[in-house]
Specification:
By secondary structure, this protein is an alpha/beta fold. It has 10 helices and 17 strands. 29% of the residues lie in helices and 21% in strands. Bound molecules: iron/sulfur cluster.
Amino acid sequence: MQKATLFRKKPNNAVRCTACQQYCTIPEGGTGICGVRLNQEGELYLVVYGKPCSINLDPVEKKPLFHFLPGTQIFSLGTFGCNFACSFCQNWDISQATREIKVQCENAEQQKSQILSLADSFEEWEPKKIVDYCTMHKIPSIAYTYNEPAIFFEYAYDTAKLAHKNGIKNVFVSNGYESEEALKKMKGIIDAMNIDLKAFTEGFYARNCRAKLQPVLETIKLANKLGIWVEVTTLIIPGENDSDAELKSIAEFIAGVDRNIPWHVTQFHPDFKMLERPATPIATLEKAYKIGKGTGLKFVYVGNAVTERENTYCPKCGKLLVKRIGYSIDAIGMENGRCGCGEKIPGIWK
Ligand code: SF4
């Protein structure tokens, strides 16, 4: 267990966590919404520091990131716990683990002991071990992913800093709820983010995620302003966020921040508590693609489904630059991030 850096002391040994925009006030002996940040005697501790529950080598395209070192593998890690409670979460078994513990336990002491013993059940991966592994296996980047990385910020930050010193890049795959303080610390350390913009109504976020829309919009704007490479993902759920008006609002918002931001519109598959909804029809994904392009976004991609909409084309001359089939890359037709026509293609290419 490692002492956190992102918190402030409050009266009566309480603390206010400042890692994410939930800004939990946590009484002594308690944890915040995410369940992994514990107040012990008026200090905040990260119980999952060095204790990821999921580790994999993934294709970077799976994050999804399409304008970031295409065709490479990315060391991916996540812990248990989350600051959201999405009813359609695909990683609910890890993200909602602490909520389950809280429901089952009778008091804070029991919760604390179960959360600590869950963390202890995972193999230790200190930042140095991760960076050494990536160096030895020539893995060019690390993703903090699977659950929301803002909740294990100090672990991600220490790893990312060491990774940078060793020439390894860093990626946050995020729900966009980082606090401004966390985001500003990420500048120059985190190279890229994929941020979920799950819908464009406060009702959707309140009903399905127990969160708010506005902080996510602010994060996308600030991350872009800080020079972090940003791609945005929207999982399109039939009957929830698939109207023309909502898709247009999302696309217009992204285009208003920066037309170079790639927008991934991905296919929903029934999961967790949202089992009664059908998978997103291909026609709806196609509609979202056209709406995105219609608002002036230069790069719109369809994901989680087999379509022709995964390739990158030069926005100036239309040449095929990156051909993708699922998570594999078939051809890269540009050099040093430039199309043959001279157009600079936004992203991180080396
Ligand atoms: S990371 Fe967010 S959810 Fe977790 S304790 Fe801090 S403010 Fe609360």
